Amino acid sequence: MLIQDYPPQEPPTETLLFLHGRLMVLAEGIEGEEHRHGDDPSQSLIVYPAPEPGGPVLIFMHGGGWTNGYKEEMAFLAPVLNAAGFTLVSNSYRLAPRHVFPANADDAAEAVARTWRLAERYGYDRDAIFIGGHSAGGHLAGLLAVTSDWQAARGLPGDVIKGCLPISGTFDFTPGCGLSMRPRFLGPEGRFNEVKASPLFRLGETAPPFLIAHGTEDFPHLMVQAKKFAMVLRARGLAAETVEVPDATHGTVLLMAAETDKPWLPAATHWMRAVLGRRA
């Protein structure tokens, strides 16, 4: 899909505009197949299949403060993941302020369902689906991973997500979480979406393993949240590992994710194989 085919987005900050530009340059010439699962153009995904069938899948969602971003930006991850035997799926979701929670989470859940159903077409293993994302995408990935109220309605097994890999995600929106302002995707106050949208407060008795990453120069409140969320997961007997990317900011930690000599990519591919019990 062309960027101009999407609904208008909020004017991006200079930081977001720079990151978008870098990502689109890195994504140039990388082709996948698009599928829609709703009337809004943002309700769509792109599949970048691995060359060999039977491998795992990573659904990875873009960031952008819940108000910006495009699935096409994540294409830069496809070559390195495909080379490692992983299919990449990148999905968009409806954005604030026009759409508020839980619209974005519903779209992410539909993308998981569509990925599960496309397995026969592309030959990947639908019983080896992982989910991740950067920033706002990392938040949505974490929320889907810890909640169990969306799978059955879509005909999915409860354990459809085998592991979660958020990068610089937000796990807590309640007062004192460190955010400088209340994100607009939460909608009007009084709906208690701060709690409903917070993976930290949606944890049940079970959750898939987590690999939680951030840069050492990331936003301070997100580094604190990552450490706290990992601690809470472990305290509940759930599996959580962390990756800190040296000298990476909130934006460059994503740009480094496709670099084989940086920590995230080798850690992520090894970790996903280990979760599945496959050879590293």
Automatic annotation (TrEMBL):
* Alphabetized SUPFAM superfamilies for the sequence: alpha/beta-Hydrolases (SSF53474)
- Swiss-Prot/TrEMBL keywords: Hydrolase
Single GO molecular function = hydrolase activity
> Domain BD-FAE-like spans what residues?
55-149
Q: Where is the signal peptide?
A: none
The reply to whether Hydrolase figures as a keyword in the UniProt entry is yes
InterPro entries per UniProt: AB_hydrolase_fold (IPR029058), BD-FAE-like_dom (IPR049492), GDXG_lipolytic_enzyme (IPR050300)
Superkingdom, natural source: Bacteria
Pfam families found in the cross-reference section: BD-FAE
Q: What is this protein called?
A: Arylformamidase
Per the UniProt record, the source organism is Rhizorhabdus histidinilytica
